[in-house]
């Protein structure tokens, strides 16, 4: 146990006190828009948790059959955030009901902003936050109060506003080197697998997180897995480190693709016109022999793209 204690980092004691959970009705789903022309379509019910998808009349909808996942396009980033909150809340209900825990992996960047509706009614009062276990798909090796810290970003914008148990928030040990922090975080995950907080994939044996909430860089990078970098090909490790990141800061830790792709659900959240060319490359058939990292996201479970109108403008 001593080997993993440094990874079990808690939300600082300055966080607001836990709020009692109150039953509340789910908000109505956001209007869903879909296709290259951003035209409205009628949502339909699908099996499993309360979800909405589009009728497969759009050429984009057919991409789900090609292994590229479901694609949901929204008229604005605000509508995207509303739908993402419902999607996350529904999966929270599903997994807490089925196994009494919900393992959620978040990334940095604009993803945390897109989770903002979860800290508002009805979700802040209806989600059973005590069952959440929160992890990071990657982290910059900087102090937790540093502006580059993904932990700080998530704490300021999300964690400090919801009553997740401090002991269920797993951040890196920022006192260690990049290599040491990666090893320590992997040891932490192995402990949580052994204690059955995290399940494992029957297909791969890698940890199987319930939900990964991922953003994407304008170069197509996912987590801290960058185009053309050797770490894209890592097949054995759960967590690894990088000391030559193309984006500062140079030192980071990151989940590897085998762990990312063992997930039960992945939401790829992309907004903004600056990312439209990469979205086009990822979702349209590409003849490029060298794949972008985002094109390697292929979970054994379900992949859903959450795009705003600008990000989908080239589809």
If you had to describe this structure to a student in words, what would you say it looks like?
By secondary structure, the protein is of the alpha/beta class. It has one domain: 3-Layer(aba) Sandwich (Rossmann fold), CATH 3.40.50.1360. It has seven helices and 15 strands. The protein has helices at 77-99, 111-114, 123-126, 150-157, 178-194, 257-260, 276-283; strands spanning 33-34, 39-40, 43-45, 52-54, 70-74, 102-106, 132-136, 138-140, 199-200, 207-208, 211-214, 239-242, 252-255, 265-270, 302-308. Strands 5-15-14-11-6-7 form a six-stranded parallel β-sheet. A hairpin with a 6-residue loop joins strand 9 (199-200) and strand 10 (207-208). The longest helix is centred in the N-terminal third of the chain and has 23 residues, at 77-99. The protein is globular. The N and C termini lie far apart (50 Å). The relative contact order is 0.16.
Task: Set down the secondary structure blueprint.
Blueprint: E1 33-34, E2 39-40, E3 43-45, E4 52-54, E5 70-74, H1 77-99, E6 102-106, H2 111-114, H3 123-126, E7 132-136, E8 138-140, H4 150-157, H5 178-194, E9 199-200, E10 207-208, E11 211-214, E12 239-242, E13 252-255, H6 257-260, E14 265-270, H7 276-283, E15 302-308
Parallel strand pairs: 5-15, 6-7, 6-11, 11-14, 14-15
Antiparallel strand pairs: 1-2, 3-4, 8-13, 9-10, 12-13
Integer count of domains: 1
Which stretches of 5+ consecutive residues score pLDDT under 50?
1-66
Determine the structural class based on helices, strands and strand pairing: alpha/beta
What does the radius of gyration come to? Answer: 19 Å
**What is the beta-strand fraction?**
15-25%
Tally of individual helices = 7
Assign the CATH topology.
Rossmann fold
- How far the N terminus sits from the C terminus, by CA atoms, comes to 50 Å
CATH architecture: 3-Layer(aba) Sandwich
Major sheet attributes: 6 strands, parallel
How many E strands?
15
Order of strands, main sheet, comes to 5-15-14-11-6-7
Shape: globular
Report the order of strands and helices. Answer: EEEEEHEHHEEHHEEEEEHEHE
Helix content class: 10-25%
Mean pLDDT: 83
CATH top level assignment: Alpha Beta
GO molecular function, one term: 6-phosphogluconolactonase activity
EC number: 3.1.1.31
Catalytic activity: 6-phospho-D-glucono-1,5-lactone + H2O = 6-phospho-D-gluconate + H(+)
Domain Glucosamine/galactosamine-6-phosphate isomerase: 76-305
